[in-house]
Amino acid sequence: MDRKKREKEMACVLVCSLGFPAKDVRNAFSMLIESADDTALDNPVVVEDLAMFLARVVVDEVLAPRDLEELGSTMGGKVIRTAKTLLEARLSGERILRCWGGGGIESKSPGCTVSEVKEKIQVLLEEYASGGDLKEACRCVKDLGMPFFHHEDVKKSVVRIIEEKEKKERVWKLLKVCV
């Protein structure tokens, strides 16, 4: 629950892919809801996260909407109410599928594709090189949530340094601080 959006998306895709019986998924959520009060001490948004996970497994058809009723009758009223509210909203299915940046199990890609990440890095470097803020650029690199992809940051930065010699000091500074 205390992970980033990308990891939450991958967890949802994993739950959908493994094909657990609905009864087991329902029991797992019951245990999570029971421990929500304790978890809230470390993660204050646990109710919202659990509700979003519940809504997501309903949209992904791992659980049926009636399974929420069974969970709601036992415990975790606030989590269940929040999940139902999310599911009842207009165009909720599409919104819930993309809640953490992915497109669900059908997209075969939790989060961004490699080409999308490369494009985001390119845009980030262009904005920074043209006078952007160093802290903002570092935050954007972190927000990508892909530390295993920093080689692409370095590669694109070196290319930019070679192509635009007048901006090389700014780009070097970005590499020193962020990557």
UniProtKB/TrEMBL annotation:
This is MI domain-containing protein. Keywords: Cytoplasm, Nucleus, Repeat, Translation regulation. The keyword Nucleus applies. Residues 1-73, 116-179 form the MI domain. One of its GO terms (cellular component) is cytoplasm. One of its GO terms (biological process) is regulation of translation. InterPro entries: ARM-type_fold, Initiation_fac_eIF4g_MI, PDCD4. It is found in: Cytoplasm. It comes from the Eukaryota. Belongs to the PDCD4 family. It holds the Pfam family MA3.
